[in-house]
Design a protein that fits this description.
Blueprint lengths: L2 E6 L4 H10 L8 E8 L2 E8 L2 H11 L6 E7 L14 E2 L3 E9 L2 H10 L9 H12 L4 H11 L2 E9 L6 E6 L4 E4 L4 E4 L11 E4 L5 E4 L4 E4 L11 E2 L15 H7 L1 H9 L3 E2 L2 E2 L8 H4 L4 E6 L1 H18 L3 E5 H4 L10 E7 L5 H12 L3 E6 L5 H5 L2 E4 L12 H20 L5 H24 L1 H11 L4 E6 L2 H17 L2 E6 L17 E5 L5 H12 L5 E6 L11 E5 L7 H19 L18
Parallel strand pairs: 17-18, 17-19, 19-20, 20-21, 22-23, 22-24, 24-25, 25-26
Antiparallel strand pairs: 1-4, 1-10, 2-3, 2-4, 5-6, 6-7, 7-8, 8-12, 9-10, 9-11, 11-14, 12-13, 15-16
Helix pairs in contact: 3-4, 4-5, 7-13, 7-14, 9-13, 9-16, 13-14, 14-18, 15-18, 16-18
Bound molecules: fructose -6-phosphate.
Fructose -6-phosphate binds next to helix 9 and helix 16.
Length: 607
Amino acid sequence: MCGIVGYAGYRDCSDVLVDALSKLEYRGYDSAGVAVFENGEIKVCKAQGKLEMLRKKMQEEGKPQGRVGIGHTRWATHGEPSDINSHPHSGAKVTVVHNGIIENYRELKEFLSAKGVEFVSETDTEVVAQLLNYYYKGDPLDTIIKTISDLDGSFALGIIFADYPERIYAVRRESPLIVGIGKDENYIASDVPAILKYTRDYYLLDHDEIAVLTDSEVNIYDIHKEPVEKTLMTADWDESAAEKGGYEHFMIKEIHEQPNAVNMTVKPRVVDGLPNLEECGITHENIKSFKNIFVVACGTAMHAGMVGKYVIERLAGVPVTVDIASEFRYRSPIVGEGDLVIIISQSGETADSLAALRLAKSLGAKTLAVVNAKGSSIAREADMLVYTHAGPEIAVASTKAYIVQLAVMYLFAFELSLARGKITEEQCRELTLSLLAVPELIGKILETDLEKSQYISTKLLSADSLLYIGRGLDYALSMEGSLKLKEISYIHSESYAAGELKHGTISLITDEMPVIAVATQRSLLEKTVSNIVEVKSRGAMVIIITREDFTIDEKAYDFRIDIPSTDDMLMPMLAAVPMQLIAYYTSVLRGNDVDKPRNLAKSVTVE
Ligand code: F6R
């Protein structure tokens, strides 16, 4: 998704903007640009492609010299990636960078065209710039308020007015935006990593709040022009958390951060050996009587919900429906009072998940958010909130955020089961103890399985397509394994319930279709192995991910990855790791941009 930055201070503005934009690269983008006040005039420089292209253009054409300006990385929505469609966009007196989608931009464009305004790009953003320009009569605040009243859709905007060369204006609706507070310098940004090098203090802008920044002052107003008092937030991680720290890619760094992330997420929520989510608004009283639970999320977060479903149903005996957020919001779900809707989201800003949360609330359900990004929209709007403590996840492919989402699903399932009297305190203590031991086991896997996973990746390089299979929790996990591989290696893959293969899909099996089979569930082992034998005997190369204490006939597979044993229910947290490693190494060996796979964005703030 697009990234926005802005700076007013004493440093070289172009340098700060490009540096801050480089910290937002993980969001995905296809062009970049800046607008800086140079001797009182707005100077724009923008280029299609990576930031390197922008740097090159700045060298060729002269870097804009100044102390105040805005910058942008664009992930194309309206109009192809090109220099012209890149942001910033300008009207005569106003220049704008924008994240989000203006849904009524066509009507507005027609309106402005009828007034004689000419457009140079295909973007919805230029319409905003021209509308601001149209309404501008000398007062920027009035102009912004009038303009955003006309806009439908989502936006975070960084705006500069030619008449006010010492100021940046910022406003948001739906799309995230923060205001960074430094000493004699202030910032705007789409996300905290952009400003961490300069400051850890920031304000979160709320919907329709307008920030006015100079190097020495920040004022925030509501839509009625009333000043708003904000709480200053402080990021609890520093710049190094958003850097590679000696690893070749963020993804492998983040895979290695998983033991710590699980510790940070689980340990503070265990009191006297039992899960305790009171600080998140969760008590035995308020969770024990839900009739139905829905888990609604997208992509990897939805896969964490799949694991949650198996565990909650098995332990707590409450029916759980897992929904893809973009389906849930349009399928008239039968949800209401007495139901709980859990929204899982790393970014806390995913447009469909946020809309699903709002829908669930409007239908009378209680909502629980499981979110990584502090202060994000989903975190703020849910009735109950459990933060995962993964720290910043920069690689587009989610790894550590997934693992901690699983950890929270377990904590919640244990607590719910205890509250409903489905497990004894002693059983709950045992399960919790096993969960607390998971970080150490992940650490062990990272010591022993790196090379094996790397070797297996060499066997997958030339495949056109792969199958991931498993039963029960292994099936839920294989969905994530398959997504991880396909999104970064660009090899097609599907996950299948192992028992379902013979109802159609097995006809795809040849010696050119590798199969990754997950077999960690004791009660399902025999059945899973029969399914594995079915594909092996039809020529597939089989890689089995299983636990070290399982005996499996060597003829059933070609390669075996062993992981340590723990309670069956917790095995997905361990088996996920070799899957992540296989995806990672396959992508590296294929020479792909591992951290920023093509066409993908980290935070999907549009539908
Ligand atoms: C894949 C991945 C995505 C996200 C999905 C939801 O590796 O990261 O599938 O899980 O876009 O994002 P969040 O969790 O931010 O709502």
